[in-house]
Amino acid sequence: MVLKVGTIGTSWITEQFIEAILASREYDLGAIYSRDASKAKVINEKFATNATAFTDLTAFFASDIDVVYIASPNALHYRQILQAIENDKHVIVEKPAVITPMQFEMVYSKLREHPNVRFFEAARHIHQPNFKKIAAQIEKMEQIQGATFVYNKYSSRFDDFLAGKNPNVFNPDFAGGAIEDLGVYPIYAAVALFGLPKDAQYFATKLSNGADGRGTAILRYPEFDVTLIFGKNSNSYLASEIYGLEDSIVIDSIAELTSILYHHNPTEAEQIADLPHENPMLAEVTVFAEIINNFDLHNQEYRDLLMLSQRVNNVIYQLRQTAALSFPADQEK
């Protein structure tokens, strides 16, 4: 079944998502929600689609779409997820899906009321074939003694912040900052590869408005630690690493996964990565369509993804508490 998709958000990441779903041939673009109808027209022209433009969110959810893709500011995800589920639409939502464990529990509750609806957090990197190669290589290693995952990238909106503006991606009122954006990539990788840590601590470097511009998190496991370095106000060119005994895995970027070197020892290494697809979202949208269309065959895979999303949500929340990072969602009852 070709799935009809409606999108919320018109930024570059929505365009990348549309490119991926059209390339997969598993979806059609059926609707575009934006407060500015002209933006929907631009997208239709760019992708040669004929999606219906909506400026009213209630009408958008009442339309004949099968799947909603949510790429709005972080703080808006939760209400839009609930509204989508209530209208029996499958949900693909950009990370972070929601902000607090309470919100995640409410999403779980709503899903139980609508058992035919599927909910996915768009953590694209964990679905890529090269991420699976990392997991497979870890299984072959005699011992894991720790890891360092790095994702530091200067945001195109940080110049606006420095100029005195308060863009959503750096605004605590919209759950902005490093940990709820680029930090999700290394946190997801750590939890997917190593499970829930027994303890977690975040050392955040805060901006003048209280958001975290960058920071270092330490996830403690029974036999090793994982250090996470991430930020949105500087660039880093450090590789990410997973430490064995004499061997190690060196990854160019924990989010992009274009190079993965397995070092057998200091003098012998091999490239285990395949050339990734030019659109990094293709793998995840293909997985999501397969689960929706053949749920009986992928029930356990779906449950595992849902549990992983909840675990990541819990870890991020715990890290925020240790760094005294608070958002309006934390006050919700």
Automatic annotation (TrEMBL):
Ranges for domain Gfo/Idh/MocA-like oxidoreductase N-terminal: 3-117
- Write down the InterPro entries for this protein, in alphabetical order: Gfo/Idh/MocA-like_OxRdtase_N, GFO_IDH_MocA-like_dom, NAD(P)-bd_dom_sf
Occurrences of domain GFO/IDH/MocA-like oxidoreductase (ranges): 156-248
> Which GO molecular function annotation, any one, does this entry have?
nucleotide binding
Stored Pfam families: GFO_IDH_MocA, GFO_IDH_MocA_C3
Matches recorded under Gene3D superfamilies: Dihydrodipicolinate Reductase, domain 2, NAD(P)-binding Rossmann-like Domain
* PANTHER family in the record: PTHR43054, SCYLLO-INOSITOL 2-DEHYDROGENASE (NADP(+)) IOLU
**Name of the featured protein:** Gfo/Idh/MocA family oxidoreductase
